[in-house]
Amino acid sequence: MEDSIDVILQDYGGVCPTSRPHPVLTACTAALLTGLYGVWRLFAVPGFRKIPWNLKVPYLPSSKVQTLNIMQLLEGRTGRLADLGSGDGRVVFAASSAGFQCTGFEINSILVACAKSKALWTGVPSSQATFVKKDFWKTDLSSYNNVTAFLAPGVMEVLGEKLLKELPDDARVIASRFPFPDWPQKSAFGSGLDQTFSYDISTVRSHLRNIPKTVLH
User: Fold this and answer.
1) From CA 59, how far away is CA 114, in angstroms rounded?
2) How do residues 159-177 score in pLDDT, each as one tens digit?
């Protein structure tokens, strides 16, 4: 290459001069960043004050590939499905189109409104896809035989305890990106950030019963 480091640095100096920025430009930039932060808060954190700090999970939508991976792991299944932290409803819409009776649990009222509007606009009946502004941590999930969750690694152990207490033996749980610790996987699909994991509750319960308990002295 003919360009020397000196020439490259000179080019960058022209683009990003070392002189102090204009105060009006600085103010406009600060206002823009403040506005973007406000929009982010609207979608990411409404309802957080109602949930214990250790159970809070910001909104992060599933990718298209991740959603397809979830549907692969639900293949052959039927019945009722609960999507925990349903966001804009993309997993619920995909599962309802495959014949599941779905409920999306979401504490963000804006995301719930968006999902309901999309369901109305696309003609998805409420018998197939329902979105509720409700804290799933305080909801009995025993009537669901399929559960999907894309949350955070810090809450998976606590969620696992809840699901083991409430779900029927024939239930299947799909976890996106973050697996349940100590749960034997039935199967996994995809790779990297889009990887999803499936678990059969009956198998998990049997496995955990057979693990020797540590005796404390």
Assistant:
1) 14
2) 999 999 999 999 999 999 9
